Inverse folding.
């Protein structure tokens, strides 16, 4: 199988697990891993080398922006596509530049997410 590797990062465990269950059904993904904070995201990215990372912004220990910068620094030659996901719409709107290729609000709009992954 030659599918994509996905990493979901969210400190809201139920939200992360639900998103994982939904996206595991997508035939484009060979694997779907989950991390529950920014530090764990960096570690998971090192181990799984994801093609796409869907990352919450506001998390304990390390926020999503900081984790995204660290992940991009590790994979400068072939970085993963980073998608910010947050319930803080004001923070999403304030992010005009930065490490993320796209930004989505919570709850997840699956049609918009599917378009970003395509």
């Amino acid at each position: 199988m030659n599918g994509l590797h996905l990493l979901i990062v969210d400190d809201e465990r139920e939200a992360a697990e639900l998103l994982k269950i939904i996206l595991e059904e997508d035939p484009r993904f060979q694997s779907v891993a989950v991390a529950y904070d920014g530090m764990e995201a960096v570690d998971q990215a090192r181990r799984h080398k994801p093609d796409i990372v869907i990352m919450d912004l506001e998390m304990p220990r390390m926020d999503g922006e900081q984790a995204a910068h660290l992940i991009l620094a590790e994979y400068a030659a072939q970085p993963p596509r980073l998608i910010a996901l947050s319930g803080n719409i004001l923070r999403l709107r304030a992010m005009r530049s930065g490490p993320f290729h796209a930004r989505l609000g919570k709850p997840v709009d699956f049609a918009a997410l599917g378009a970003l992954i395509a």
Summary: Residues 20 and 93 are 26 Å apart (CA to CA).
